[in-house]
Amino acid sequence: QNARLGYVPTEDHPVGQASRHFAKLVEEKTGGRIKIETFGNGVLGSEPDMQASVQAGFIDIMVGPTPNLVGVVPEFMIYDLPFFYKDFAAVDAVMDGEVGERLFSLLKEKTGIVGLAWWDNGFRHMTNAVRPVKTVEDMAGLNIRVIPNPLFIATWTALGTNPTPLPWPELYAALENRAVDGQETPYALIYTARFYEVQKHLVKTGHVYTPFVLLASQKWFGSLSEEDKELVLEAANESAAFQREISRKSAEDLEQELIAKGFEITEPTPEALAAMRERVAPVVKEYSEKIGVDVVEQAEAAMAAIAAQ
Amino acid sequence: MPVPLQWLFKAFDVLVVIFMALMSLLVFANVVLRYGFSSGIAFSVEVSRLFFIWVIFLGSAVALAKGVHLSVDTLVSRLPRKARFACFLVAYGLMLWCCWLLAVGSWSLTLIEWGNRAALSGLPVGLNYAAALVAAITMAVCLLVGLWQALRGSLPATWSSTEAAEPPLTVIPVAPSEKMQ
Amino acid sequence: MSGVVFLGSLLGAIGIGIPISFALMLSAVALMILLGNLDAQILAQRLVNGADSYPLMAIPFFLIAGELMNAGGLSRRIVNVALALVGHLRGGLGYVVIGTGLLMASLSGSAIADTATLAVMLVPLMRDAGYNMDRATGLMASTGIIAPVIPPSVGFIILGVTANISIIGLFLAGIVPGLLMGVSLIFAWWFVSRKETAAVRPKLPRRDLPKAILTAGWALLLPVIILVGLRFGVVTPTEAGVVAAAYALFVGLVVYRELTPKLLYEALLAAGRMTAVIMLLVAASMVTGFMMTIASLPAQLVALLSPFIDTPTLLMAMIVLAIFIIGMVLDFAPSITILVPILIPLVNAAGIDPVYFGVIFIMTAAVGMITPPVGTVLNTVCGISGTTMDSALKGVWPFLLAEMILIVLLVIFPQLVTVPAAWLH
Ligand code: NA
Ligand code: NA
């Protein structure tokens, strides 16, 4: 029986491409001993459902974003902190450094799930149908859909908007009929969900970076020989480099594509971003304590080290 | 059906009605608030879905007791009495086993997810699985009662080749009288 | 091998009389055992989370709306309008059945509830007028099954969620085929009632008509609210459901003043019971669907039927035939929850418009409710009209034939569905 890998995005999404690439790498490296079959479009279930199935050993490998792991390992909220990461280099320093390792070992400890690699999901940006946004003042009073998560609600309240938690399947209709004015997701989702049909303005807030993680079940991973474990981890590492590159490249291309589809894109000045960061500072402080100040400091140190280079 | 079980199902019926009403109220209030006042009840979706799950599982338990879950008796009704009885025993045995699996699974999920709080309402996520646990236990009790009654000679409608006496699942309106036109 | 285990356990369990929702769970358990990983926790988790869906909450809301309509006296007023309009024609009560049925189909999502109401309202009138009751029973049953094709529709909601197809798209695409079902029945009824000897009702005084329309107008406003709301994106299907329920409550309580607390309780309880029965099936089929995918069954079926994937019309014809045959013994909701997860990979592979597939699927599965041996809707009318199933079958076949001819036409000319759907969307 082949190993099964599940993910929710479409097959042509960077996650889909990288999943197939990972499967190919594993098969090549192990000389065909391990074959992986990939299932996209959520046919194996929603991300929380898959997580439980990975834990139980029905699904061998899955890809999902980090917010779903917060319930079992609150430290994963480090990726939901607003205006915490300056750029991709800062994010990579945290994911590939001690913090990333620590989060995976906490996950293993609490659930048995094996973290294989950190993949890219892009920075989240805000879109709306009302007006161009350049400063935090421009955000005032907009109804923004957020994922049902207290940290996101606190962030968007601090920014002066009315955050409305809505389930993802309801979002498009809510944007279309203006039940909400805007939303905040990465480029890839904005594009694949066709938000350009119902939204006009995109502001490059890049306020949050939520990575994807490649996870394996203990049942499957534990059954491999030591040699194969090494080879799978090696393939996972190479897949991360591949996935981050195509994902970030495609985000760049998507920006042009979104403009072509009618989005007006604005970029806040460093001063405007600083003003936003200042607004959410109390939220960051409050949630840093919930995450654990040591983890946050560890992340900050990793980012400082990379910035110093 | 023994009297205590009848009371239990009466209570389930009342709960189903209350949950149906509350879940409608929550979603309706949210719609009105959103369109009328651009605000909303943050926990509305979470809590109404919890009520929905409880309606499904409590209602399913009552439906099993009353024999209204959809089933097919085309084959069974053509069999001789002894074969029908055998089918009944196998069917009830398998259903009991299914309830057992469901009870074990939902019990451990209730425990695991009890500490996991829903993001907006703060309610334990384990409450979702508790609904399945309650249903699995009550359904198992119903099945055991059914087995006991069958051993004393009265088989449920599907296996006794009699028409089910249960009326359709709908409110039957008053027929119009000619003079009302 | 996994296919044999799956089908064997599912059909075996259904065959010995196990309720279909349990049979679905048991077939998933059988696949788990085959894969050497029987896990009670996954069974419970997939079952509960299969039910935990915001879009599916539209089902209880539309069911509440339908029950409140009935209990609040709306359906009776609709009958009165139809009587005033066509009651005096030859075979006029037959047209009253079709007209009332079409209107009620646009108010409620459940065929059983609609048919029961039709029968309670019109069986006494048709019997007193001396109509052939076998034929009348057949007509009411074949009219009742229009309910799931014209929005709102529980069937479309389940299909949309299981196959990941836009529910609004399905709703809008169902309107014209649903009306065509009504037209096909009008032809069939006209044909069989040419020599009807039943008493022709006196024509009502002209001045009564506006009054009848005005009081029933409150009912006629509801489909308009639902459709306009959905079409222009003012509400999502779930919200449309709850708005419909609130509207029905308002009309029953404030306008007609017929809704008592006791009736309200009964309506909520009936809707709750129906919700439970339907949703346990849906949830159980989510477990089955998951295990089928894990066992690679859909992929095997696509590979098996790949020769037909190049000719979508032939594939659709085969699908219709399969639904028709399975619809003989399976009820409406189970045919959706069992067949759709199997068929949707095929439909996608063949490039068939999923909304078109959904409409044809629901029409054919609805016809299954009036085919022998298991025809729940026909059975419901028989219970109320006191006809036996055997004589009802003699009365139903002209209408059944008319509806099947319509489906065949829609398979040959998909434009009949897709063009109006594109225009309405
Ligand atoms: Na309908
Ligand atoms: Na049938």
Task: Write up what this structure looks like.
The complex is a heterotrimer of chains A (309), B (181) and C (425). Chain A is of the alpha/beta class. In chain A, 50% of the residues lie in helices and 18% in strands. Chain A contains 12 helices and 11 strands. In chain A, the strands form 2 sheets. In chain A, strands 7-6-8-5-9-11 form a 6-stranded mixed sheet, sandwiched between helices. In chain A, 50% of the residues are buried. Chain B has 181 residues and is an all-alpha fold. Chain B has one domain. Chain B is 67% helix and 0% strand. The relative contact order of chain B is 0.13. Chain C has 425 residues and is an all-alpha fold. Chain C has one domain. In chain C, helix 5 crosses helix 6, helix 9 packs across helix 16 and helix 10 crosses helix 20. The termini of chain C are far apart. The relative contact order of chain C is 0.16. The interface between B and C is large, with 67 and 90 residues. The structure holds sodium ion (2 copies). Chain B: It is a multi-pass membrane protein. Chain B: Keywords: Cell inner membrane, Cell membrane, Membrane, Transmembrane, Transmembrane helix, Transport. Chain B: The complex comprises the extracytoplasmic solute receptor protein and the two transmembrane proteins.
Give a quick set of tags describing it.
heterotrimer; A: 309 residues; alpha/beta; 5-stranded mixed β-sheet; 12 helices; 50% helix; globular; C: 425 residues; 20 helices; 78% helix; binds sodium ion
- β-strand amount of chain B: under 5%
Hetero groups bound?
sodium ion
Structural class of chain B: mainly alpha
Terminal CA distance of chain C reads 44 Å
Residue share in β-strands of chain C: under 5%
Shape of chain C: globular
Average pLDDT of chain C, to the nearest integer? 88
Name the helicity range of chain B: 55-70%
Q: Which regions of chain B are unreliable across 5 or more consecutive residues at pLDDT < 50?
A: 177-181
Report the count of strand segments of chain B. Answer: 0
Largest interface: B-C, 67 and 90 residues
**Average of the residue pLDDT scores of chain B:** 85
**How many strands in all of chain C?**
0
Biggest sheet of chain C, in brief? none
Oligomer: heterotrimer
List unreliable stretches of 5+ residues of chain C: none
- Specify the helix fraction band of chain C: over 70%
Using the CA coordinates, give the radius of gyration of chain B: 21 Å
Radius of gyration of chain C: 22 Å
Function (chain C): Part of the tripartite ATP-independent periplasmic (TRAP) transport system.
Organism (chain C): Neorhizobium turbinariae
Main location (chain C): membrane
Membrane topology (chain C): Multi-pass membrane protein
